[in-house]
Protein: Heparinase II/III family protein
Amino acid sequence: MNIAIFRSKVKSLILVTFVILLPFGAQAAHPNLVITAADVLEMRKAITKPGQFSKAYSDLKAQVDLQVAQPIIVPVPKDGGGGYTHEQHKNNYQLMYNAGIIYQLSQDKAYAEYVRDMLLAYAQLYPTLGLHPARKVESQNPGKFFWQSLNEAVWLVYTIQAYDLIYAALSVQDIASIETKLLKPVALFLSEGQPSTFNKVHNHGTWATAGVGMAGYVMNEPEWVEKALYDLEKSGKGGFLKQLDELFSPQGYYNEGPYYQRYALLPFVTFAKAIENNEPQRKIFQYRDGIVLKAIDTTIQLSYDGLFFPINDAIKSKGIDTIELVHGVALAYSLTQAPGYLDIAKQQDQIILSGDGLKVAQALDKGLAASYQFNSVAFGDGSDGKQGALVIMRSQLAGDQAVLFKPAAQGLGHGHFDKLTWQFYDQGEEIVSDYGAARFLNVEAKFGGRYLPENESYAKQTVAHNTVVVDETSHFNGDVEVGNANAPVLHFFETSELGTVSSAKIDTAYQGVELKRTMALVNLAELEKTIVLDLFDVVSSKAHQLDLPLHYLGQLIDTNFSLAVNTGQLSALGAKNGYQHLWLKGRGLPKQGLAKVSWLNENGRFYTHTSLVNGQEEFLFTQLGASDPNFNLRNEQAFVRRVKNNKQHRFISILEPHGEYNPGKEYTLEAESQVTELGYSQQGEVLLVDITIAGLPYLIAINQAAEGSIKQDFQYQDRSFSINRRLAVFALNDDEE
Structure:
């Protein structure tokens, strides 16, 4: 792409960072990446005064002092993720980075000398290394220090910053040795040596381009910067800017999902800051309508109670206090001075020692934080925002609640085959759950800390999620390339004081089958309660077996239908596509009417899932753990609603939180569901669900009309109603909407 035309399309941000402009290629003062010489002067002043920044400095200095008192260890690489040598090299790059910062702030050359000596040790080791012995050649590019080149790129991102921080303390001979024997060879290995990764639009490519690009700024290699931005051929088909174009939607949602959005955020934020500090004329923070800032904010929104929503290959313990987002929040506040980011910074309880971190610390000291607003929002997926969406519904009516609805795109190789799945959260706990990733990160005994085989055989399979499975076969027949080429269509999303509603469909997950799901988190203001409404329509040209699993966290309490339970011997629910991992523990066939399943969560609340059934839906109760000889899977519970030999079927259900169980004080309140009636009908484009709960009758109307004809009139029980939005809730006993 012509760069002049490209830059002419860039819109301006509200705030502009003013930087003294040096022509690229001129020798700028070091440090000149994320932390600049000007930042250092302000940071040195700050550490002489009481406050959060000086405390963070003292804490880090004490930590670094303990570490630099130990001998330098740069081992010959041997182990995979979680092994000794892997972890030692991780610790080394973090220590070099931290010691470099302490050197700049304390001006004590002992810290610079420690970093210098470690870099020289690496410079002596690196020329002797071949590819890593624990490399996984069949699926990923290997590194030399690490089993995959991704980790090598992370090493360079941190190490080049450490080198930049101590550059002024080095002799000409040390600079020559470190650059020619270590940093330049690593940068060339990660770029020209692995073009498929460096040019790839993927988080591995992001880390590689960030590391090589920053090395270009520090070592005065402008060609490296250009290649990092535009790919090795400088064609614009790959590189950092292409990653900003394609990996994020216009709203800042990252295609691989929240877990990898968090992971990829650090190289995006770090390299962008380095670009701004070295070449402000590129206006990187204005690029694509401020996509970097949007990505930071979206990462925060993709969390509940401090943890990221665990879709795709996600480890559930990752949250907003992760170091990548700490850097992101500091940058976001620096760009906007929005006090809500200080609220997140306060929750993170970490101050980074940088110019941006200083601004956060000083603002927190002044008490400028204001509550960050978490919203109900549909984040469009794909570079154009039109490849489905990730939908978040939130309510505070009955405590902090959230529904995550996923009519989103596949998410590349880390995506799961879970179109139109959902999760539910209440009072800080996951209630309707997603397994996330089958992995013990950096636990060497568990498959070297890599993704477990069960990640493919179970966690990615459709039955591991809360969406329809046709004929016990996963969406797109488990083919990632097919999945990446086909995304759901978001019909509508709306949020108001009545609640939040969204509808989407996909007709490519199975040949000749259309899946359509409409979900709503509905506020029942009179009762100060919420319910989750779920309408799932399956229409096919041929008859199929249809399974709709619901994975829940908690203890099964009761069903209102009889169960045949396997108490002596268990068998797997199926033979493949994840079914081989589910023990069939019991089954029941509810009669026509309401089928209820209740469980108790660790948060002390009861949850009842009420389905409107026609007498043909069998309920299969399962426990995870079959076909698992290495005990890799968690023993979680689910029930599967199954209908056989059907061309079309509508699954209708609501989820009702209720009651309280307090064993410490020995009381139980409202342990039973308060839903006594549930009905469904349709008038034209309006879906009608009538429900009686706690003795109060409600009519919930969902308007499916096209945008141009949103106002709809309809009749119900000889009464006239009108709806001019997507969701309406009528309390039938008083005519009030």
In short: The chain has three domains: 1-56+248-374, 71-246, 377-731. Residues 281 and 406 are 39 Å apart (CA to CA). The radius of gyration is 28 Å.
